[in-house]
Model the fold of this input.
Amino acid sequence: MSQVFDVAVLGATGLVGQTMIELLEERKFPVGTLYPLASERSAGTTINFKGEEIEVLNADDFDWTLVQFGFFSAGGDISARIAPVAADAGCIVIDNTSHFRNIPEVPLVVPEVNPHVISTHQGVLASPNCSTTQMVLAMKPLHDAGRIRRVVVSTYQATSGAGAVGERDLEQ
Done:
């Protein structure tokens, strides 16, 4: 039997959290139990995962010893407060917010580019923003072929960067 993991998604009712949950299902990540987490305001609502309605739990009351992985996308302040608690409980936190990106002890990871740094984590892994991730994926083979010395970048962020509110504003 293949290994399965119990997983929490913090920010499960937000646009990015919902996408994370969809991707866990779409890519057949070996989830044993999924724990969707959000604020007290969203706790009690439900999300769909693998055709099953699962109740969203209050992140502030969650027992992090129940999971091996936590995917975080609920804002930097929330990650700053909850990620250390989750990591101390033995959960590996993959944080999608900006909070940990510039902390030297926290590996900034794009698995296709620098998978070797994953093993240096102390409970938390940071993810670069969406523009950086896409850019370094394209740059990696170029850098391997001939050292890249400088990159100048201008980005124009999608309205979805503001979450569901941004998408609603664009539609209106």
Summary: The first strand starts at residue 5 and ends at 10.
